[in-house]
């Protein structure tokens, strides 16, 4: 298969690194003694949940904002996201001195709205659905010249996420296998492109949750398809990849070696393990790589890296999970 020419390259990622090195945090790596003993290989955890705004999304958003020209920056950026992309974009814009509007629907809980306002963005509540919020975004782009920054399917966003791959390999050059959470595929596209450019034989394994794994369904179908969103502990991995997907579907398909799925019990166990054994607070989406190792769904060969991608979890829910309560979000109203 010939790779499409417009996909994100090693040069894009290296340029991103130069642009955002003064803005993003270089996150630490920690060896997991318990996972190393259990799997028989050295396991290194990339503590990206300690990134500014609590997830790697700050890397892609910072690169996208830094790539704007002065005119675009002065008109501001806009996004539709209730979660980590919204936080990352809001704070990236604030850091760059750019105006930022995040549009969301009436159904979004107040805690999430406050989380995004706290990063310095204006929140506009529009309509009853993400689709209606999207209409307002389209209007602001058209009438006010704002730049829309999407959460994953965008060259500069993928380039920024790729800096995580470069950084991880510099910290642990012996890496042979890397486990990466997958939703829209911006993280795994950037990370796999960076890792494979530097070390072609490296194995990149994507991980999603069983409930509503959009990229998995699209890869099986051989094209982007609509996937129903379901409640899950890995809430940052929900949502589709977009039927008009330009970058991440092809990159994920061409660059990953495998895509595994973990269930809700396995995600809860991983959150618990990461807290008690690794002493870290990680959200469900950030725990899926560890879930894969604990469940034995991937038998790692060689030095293994696991990206803990985010830490924005409701602390009441986290407390219940680490206390061993049965937290079944699939029975709760999403
Ligand atoms: C967005 C997100 C992911 C998935 O990233 P994609 O680029 O959409 O695949 C994984 N973990 C966390 C914590 C996230 O916020």
Characterise the protein shown here:
This protein has 14 helices and ten strands. The chain has two domains: 10-55 and 154-332, Rossmann fold; 58-148, Rossmann fold (3-Layer(aba) Sandwich), CATH 3.40.50. A six-stranded mixed beta sheet has the order 1-2-10-7-8-9. Strands 5-4-3-6 form a four-stranded parallel beta sheet, with helices on both faces. The relative contact order is 0.16. Helix 9 (186-198) links the parallel strand 7 (177-181) and strand 8. It has 334 residues and is an alpha/beta fold. The model has no long low-confidence stretch (mean pLDDT 93).
Descriptive tags:
14 helices, Rossmann fold, four-stranded parallel beta sheet, globular, alpha/beta, 2 domains, binds pyridoxal-5'-phosphate, 334 residues, six-stranded mixed beta sheet
Estimated share of beta-strand residues: 5-15%
Text of the CATH class of the largest domain? Alpha Beta
CATH architecture of the largest domain: 3-Layer(aba) Sandwich
Q: Spans of 5+ residues with little confidence (pLDDT < 50)?
A: none
Main sheet: strands, sense, barrel = 6 strands, mixed
Estimate the global geometry from the Cα principal axes: globular
Bound molecules: pyridoxal-5'-phosphate
- Please tally the β strands and state the result: 10
Count of the separate structural domains = 2
- Average pLDDT level: 93
């Amino acid at each position: 298969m010939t790779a499409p020419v417009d996909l994100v390259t090693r040069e894009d990622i290296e340029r991103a690194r130069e642009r955002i090195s003064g803005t993003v945090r270089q996150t630490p790596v920690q060896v997991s003694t318990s996972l190393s003993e259990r799997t028989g290989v050295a396991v290194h955890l990339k503590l990206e949940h300690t990134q500014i705004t609590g997830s790697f999304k700050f890397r892609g958003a910072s690169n996208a904002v830094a790539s704007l020209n002065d005119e675009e920056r002065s008109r501001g950026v806009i996004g539709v996201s209730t979660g980590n992309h919204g936080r990352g974009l809001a704070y990236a814009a604030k850091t760059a001195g750019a105006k930022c509007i995040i549009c969301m629907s009436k159904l979004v809980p107040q805690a999430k709205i406050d989380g995004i306002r706290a990063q310095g963005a204006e929140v506009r509540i529009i309509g009853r659905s993400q689709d209606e919020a999207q209409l307002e975004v389209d209007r602001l782009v058209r009438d006010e010249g704002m730049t829309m920054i999407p959460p994953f399917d965008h060259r500069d966003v993928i380039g920024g996420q790729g800096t995580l791959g470069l950084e991880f390999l510099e910290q642990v050059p012996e890496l042979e296998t890397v486990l990466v959470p997958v939703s829209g595929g911006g993280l795994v596209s950037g990370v796999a492109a960076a890792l494979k450019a530097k070390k072609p034989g490296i194995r990149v394994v994507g991980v999603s949750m069983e409930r509503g794994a959009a990229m998995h369904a699209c890869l099986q179908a051989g094209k982007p398809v609509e996937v129903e969103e379901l409640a899950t502990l890995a809430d940052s991995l929900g949502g589709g990849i977009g039927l008009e997907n330009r970058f991440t579907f092809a990159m994920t398909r061409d660059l990953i070696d495998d895509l595994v799925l973990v269930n809700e019990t396995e995600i809860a166990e991983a959150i618990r393990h990461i807290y008690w054994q690794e002493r870290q607070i990680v959200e469900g989406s950030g725990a899926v790589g560890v879930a894969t190792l604990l469940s034995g769904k991937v038998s790692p060969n060689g030095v293994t890296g696991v990206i803990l991608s985010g830490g924005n979890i409701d602390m009441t829910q986290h407390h219940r999970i680490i206390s061993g309560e049965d937290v079944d979000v699939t029975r709760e109203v999403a």
